[in-house]
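Thanks for the sequence, V.! I ran Glycine--tRNA ligase right away. Repeating your input here for the record:
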Amino acid sequence: MANQDDQFKKVISHAKEYGYIFPSSEIYDGLSAVYDYAQNGVELKKNIREYWWKAMVQMHDNIVGIDASIFMHPTTWKASGHVDAFNDPLIDNKDSKKRYRADVLVEDHVAKIEAKINKEIAKAQKRFGDAFDKEQFVNTNPRVVKYNEQAQAILKRLGQSLEKEDLADVKALIEELEIVDPETGSKNWTDVKQFNLMFGTKLGASADSAMDLYLRPETAQGIFVNFLNVQKTGRLKIPFGIAQTGKAFRNEIVARQFIFRMREFEQMEMQFFIKPGTQIEWYDYWKETRLKWHLSLGMGEDNYRFHDHEKLAHYADAASDIEFKFPFGFKELEGIHSRTDFDLSQHEQFSNKKLQYFDPEENKSYVPYVLETSIGLDRMFLAVFSNSLQEEELENGSTRTVLKLPAVLAPTKVAILPLVKKDGLPEVAKKIFEDLKWDFNVAYDEKDAVGRRYRRQDAAGTPFCVTVDHDTLEDNTVTIRHRDTMEQKRVKIEELQEIVKKEVDVRYWLMKTK
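Predicted structure:
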């Protein structure tokens, strides 16, 4: 656990030191669980968003995008169930006066059991070497089987209690498992209470006539209320999807783990409208399609897993999370949900407007079912960033810190470095810089010895460094260095554009999903 904590601390400090993420309004001592994306962070975030958008909208001829506003008519949130049911179960520790999400305390307890399982697997792997059969071991080792049964039983009970809103049993479960306050070790808990997560605000010039509004807690409702507008103006036939990226706001009481859980965050969602009865095949299709998108970034298949929900929202008939192995363990990165016709039916009822699709093949109208894919952009940023940050021991015994970002997402693609600040080398380097910046984000750096500049670009995540030296003046060639392998190659200046393009091109990366 300590090792995980150390790794996570490194991620947070590296993000600040290299211009990726700053605490918000830091000169005023910051604001809890609110962060600003810095000069490199804003580029990485934009590149992730574009990588998602191209895969989701540009590559699908039956998916279009919208950008709905953050403010919506307040009845929207009544219809969606957020006013009455958008709650977290909270529990206070009487001794530390700290507040926690009750379900997260239980899930963290289960994560400790899972850590024990992984320890047993690692020990057995070491003992048996190549002959080790992981699946057989997990299914037959008495200790692992027992741990697994414990974990499943706890999660099942938690899911059932939350579904029935039996908060007394959630507290009973915490007491039975002897879960302690992570800060003080105290077991002195209050009862579990529900807390609504929406931020309220007012619309209007005077206090008397102002309308109560909410900052949207999700982007999905902006899609649902525009379903008919988009379908008719786009002349779209079912099945079709509407995608959207944008800010959402939740008054998270237990916001923590850096940008993993924030009060202001960005979502990338797609609602796919389908014929009732076809939801299972589309659910399987989107599970597979979305996992392929993640795997295309080359961050390691072992770092992903599906977690099917025990506890389904009352409107869903299937739900699964793609979980990623963050420095603090496997946690939800993306949700794939079969939402039936709940959303459109609710908005029909509350607005008294028909939200139906006329199916010319069936010659009848119906309320479509919806299949949702929803990913947190900030969580995706954290997944990419934390997975990419590595310490490497080199052959000469020294170490280097390298941020091995997928090249398609890297903020800066190439750094142009004149070997020395004289002899006409900066002029040639600047000409290359001016030429390449039409196609890529390029950096220019002439300060310090070239080895130190390489290290700086490695730590910032730049995939390529191009060094201009005295030979360049003779033969128009430069040295191109690859961040991941540190391999250096002599190439012609006019070949640079093509070499870099091949490695950073969206097509090259997304083709892996085909």
